[in-house]
Specification:
Helix content: 25-40%
Number of helices: 3
Shape: globular
Low-confidence stretches: none
Order of helices and strands: EHHEEHEE
Number of strands: 5
Largest sheet: 5 strands, antiparallel
Radius of gyration: 14 Å
Distance between the termini: 13 Å
Strand content: 25-35%
Strand order of the largest sheet: 1-2-3-5-4
């Protein structure tokens, strides 16, 4: 696959229900496998997708979360659209409270915006 060869957009829309995290993880891992990432970097994508989804579930449980994936040979990008309204940060005892720390450590780009609440993640290929 050449670096200019983009795969058609991949989208996933599902309820913000933590029991669906496995679906998000597996989709992210399969998307990452379309790039030139190593197995370890695919695992990073999988972990980042799970953390972002767990955060999404804490924002507005039961609402719909729209996840879009962009992939080419050089990187994977994920956008999680969570809510049209600004929301409070998760409480310290909530597992999602640490999502930002983990996403900052794992992702090459991690951006969080309010109104609409959106997470943008990018992970570059390592091969």
């Amino acid at each position: 696959m050449s670096s200019t060869n983009h795969i058609a957009p991949i989208t996933l829309s599902l309820a913000a229900d933590p029991s669906l995290a496995r679906l998000v993880r597996m989709t992210a891992a399969n998307v990452a496998a379309l790039s030139s990432m190593s197995v370890d970097r695919v695992e990073d994508v999988r972990m980042a997708a799970e953390e972002a989804f767990i955060y999404a579930c804490s924002v507005e449980e039961g609402a719909t979360v729209d996840i879009s994936f962009a992939v080419d040979a050089q990187h994977v990008a994920m956008d999680f659209l969570l809510s049209a309204e600004p929301v409070a940060e998760p409480e310290a005892d909530n597992p999602a409270a640490y999502a930002g720390l983990i996403l900052t450590a794992v992702c090459d780009v991690y951006e969080k915006s309010d109104a609409p609440v959106r997470l943008h993640l990018e992970l570059k290929a390592d091969i």
